Structures are given as C-alpha cells and as structure tokens.
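Reviewers of the previous submission asked for a worked example of the structure-prediction workflow described in the proposal, so we include one complete record here. The input consisted solely of the amino acid sequence. No template or homolog information was supplied to the procedure at any stage.
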Amino acid sequence: MTTTAPLPPVPLVAEHQLTIRSYLPAPDAQSARLQAVACLLAFGWTGPCGLAVLTVDQLVRNASEFGRCAGENIRLRIGLTEVDDLLIDVADHNPEFPEFEKVVAGRSGQGLRRIAEYGVTVSWHPHEHGKTVRAVLGGARS
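From that input alone, the workflow returned the following structure tokens.
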C-alpha cells in the first residue's frame, strides 16, 4: 500500500527509538539486528522474533542502500502496540519509493517481498526529511 499522507499514529505500550550511523548496508543491518534483539527481549514480545529481526535487517539495508544515508543517520523505531503487534519504522533521507507495489510483490527486488509473504504489512510515506517505511508484525495471540 502506498500512502502520501503521514502514517497514522499508533498507541504504543513500549517503544525504543534508535539511531544508526550509515556506512555500508551489511554493518548497518548488523547493528540494527543486535539492537532489535535487545528491544524484543526488553518488550517480552511473544511474536515471531526471527521474522522481526529479519524485517529490521531488510528495512535498514534498504535505507542504507537506497535511502541517501551514506554517512548520515538512519532512524529506527521499534514499538509494541496494545494488541501485541510490533511496529517497525525506518526513516531515511530519500522522499521517493518508486514502484513500491512492484517491490513488495517481488517484481523488483526480493527483500520486501520476502517479509510480506510472511504476513508482515509494509507501507511508507514521504515527509519533509525523506520517508518512513513501516512494517507491522502480528504478535502471538491466544
């Protein structure tokens, strides 16, 4: 889903905002993965942790590679909603996301398609400093 309006605010019961200094996609993603694991442990999240870490990895790699972040900061926010969904926002400096639907469908690139196939909801919106890509993962519900 492509949106041009800001993503709606989501009530969170826990949140961590992190900053990753971007140098190269692989080290940027490694740093993000380590921080994501710490957040998930602190939250006590009961959802699919491996998928959450994979999602953070992919979004940060994309921001590092395509988000005009070389030598700049990538902002990562991981939050837990009242219904135990995990919200992951990654902000970069590129306000565009050409062919978003094709990317998520896997007709251009593979990373976002892979996480979408696992049931992760992915959306994005531009803002005055670039864009934010949001992923929402469902928690374990009884």
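The mean pLDDT is 87. We consider this example representative of the routine output the project will generate in years two and three.
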